[in-house]
Amino acid sequence: MADDDLAYTPATELVELIKAKKLSPVELMTATVARAERLNARLNAICTPTYDAAMDAARRAEDDVMTGRRLGPLHGVPTSIKDLAFTRGVRTMSGSFIWKDRVPDFDAPFVERLRDAGAISLGKTTTPERGWKGNGDSPVTGISHNPWKHGTNAGGSSTGAAICAASGIGPIHQGSDGAGSVRMPAAFCGIYGLKPSFGRVAYHPIPTNGFVSHVGPMTRTVADAALMLKVMAGPDDRDIASLEAPPEDYPARLEESISGLKIAYSPDLGYLKVDAEVAEPVRKAALAFQELGVHVEEVDPGWGDPIEMEHCLYTANMAGGLVDLLDQWADKMDPGLVAVARHGMTYSAATYVAMQARRMSYYDKLREFFERWDILLTPALSVAAFDNTKLIPAHWEQHPWDWFRWAGFSYPFNLTWFPAATCPCGFTPAGLPVGLQIVAGRFRDLRVLQASRAFERIRPWAAARPKLEQA
User: Fold this and answer.
1) What range defines the domain where residue 346 resides?
2) Annotated catalytic residue: which of 24, 80, 82, 213?
3) 3-state SS, residue 16
4) For the residues 331-336, what does the mean pLDDT come to?
5) Most buried one in 111, 192, 264, 406, CB count within 10 A?
6) Average pLDDT, the chain
7) What is the pLDDT of residues 139-175, one digit of tens each?
8) Residue 306, preceding bond cis, omega within 30 degrees?
9) Is there a contact between 14 and 77 (Cβ–Cβ < 8 Å)?
10) 82 an active-site residue?
């Protein structure tokens, strides 16, 4: 198999090839590491490589195959871990000089589960400082680049994970999403990203941003995401919010029909601005669902704009994690994050509690909506990838830290814990990827995956590859 074809082979196929002894884990990892070493200097996707350890693990994985030992569901498959996630013995910087030399002595639960399933990490992937924004740069790791066009934003905060997936540096990658941080880079980089229901994947240590951060898969195919989620999901007592129920068999049920589901399509959620070059591919993608035997109706959900609530809760939570650090570290931090934290400190405790009450009322509106509708389709973002030196696209209203407006389709489903995914659905005239967001009611992760897979069947996207020599 040619190196490029191997690089873009889905994990579901790689596992079967390895089990059948048609592909060596060492051969696979050698090719993946070589690709990472060739591309990473230009893309800046991996900030802490663990290539030697990955090769050692691949040799052990090959020995397991050859000696007939039990093989896990991701045996020998290359993966990566976001730099926000704790990894035992591997530096975890959170994109910040504050933690540049931090080496945890334990793994996050999902890191343990991926390793136990046989996946092999190439290293830690880049993220903005503390994952605070939808852009891919940090003070300590520098700026990252979208593989579809050098110099454009790859999204944040799961920046490096999306770049790796789009560039064929391994098929499966771990992301986390506190305001769109899986779905935004997935949209910008033309891959699939799933934010499952809150608590589906146990998170430890829990971030300070107010129980809105979800962990999910970032892949090129829906089947790979289903397999990865099944591995990562499940309860863990270290996470007070982790769901007790074990995960469903997402891979086994992925191909079930969505015929008969009631699908709503909202081009703007009733209040958001969307660039025309994004709106039109999303509209066509939403209408394509009618080919699957379902009725699609355009709606205004009528929820209202939650931006004031997001400003308070997001910035106050960020401030809570930094209040004791700013005096010492502010001059070495991302200025935008400093501004976010300072803004968060302006809210009183009473205001914060009142906003939490508003959040519960907002949740009720969405809960009632998903009692009437099975699926909601929206744009993943209001814009396509833009200059990666800018926080906000040049043609949008500027602000020192408020990037939420161009990502307004994302955070409503963090505030309310509903599962949501980004599917690639086309390109702008300039050749930049556009994403369709698929949302379902709480705990309906399987429904999101099934709808994503149904769309993938009629509008396949995985064959589209960036021209990396030009990126």
Assistant:
1) 3-458
2) 82
3) helix
4) 98
5) 192
6) 97
7) 999 999 999 999 999 999 999 999 999 999 999 999 9
8) no
9) yes
10) yes
Q: For 257-284, what is each residue's pLDDT tens digit?
A: 999 999 999 999 999 999 999 999 999 9
C-alpha 201 chain-centroid distance: 13
Tell me, yes or no, whether 317 lies in a domain: yes
Confidence of residue 469 (pLDDT cuts 50, 70, 90): low
- Active-site position among 80, 96, 144, 157: 157
Give the list of residues 6+ apart from residue 442 with CB closer than 8 angstroms, or none: 197, 367, 370, 416, 417, 418, 419
In a domain, 431, yes or no: yes
In a domain, 274, yes or no: yes
Rounded alpha-carbon distances, angstroms, from residue 33 to 3, 14, 119, 132, 455: 12, 16, 14, 29, 32
Catalytic residue from among 158, 181, 266, 452:
181
181 part of the active site: yes
**Cβ atoms of 198 and 212 closer than 8 Å:** yes
Query: Which tens digits make up the pLDDT trace of 78-97?
Result: 999 999 999 999 999 999 99
Q: Beta partners for 79?
A: 121
Question: How many whole angstroms separate alpha carbon 319 and alpha carbon 208?
Answer: 9
pLDDT surpassing 60 at residue 471: no
pTM: predicted TM-score of the whole model, two decimal places: 0.98
How many domains, in total, are found in the chain?
A: 1
| No. of helices (H) and no. of strands (E), the chain | 16, 13
- CATH of residue 425's domain is 3.90.1300.10
Active-site residue flag, 157? yes
Tell me the sheet residues that pair with 440: 375
Tell me whether residue 169 is in a domain: yes
Mean pLDDT value of segment 178-193: 98
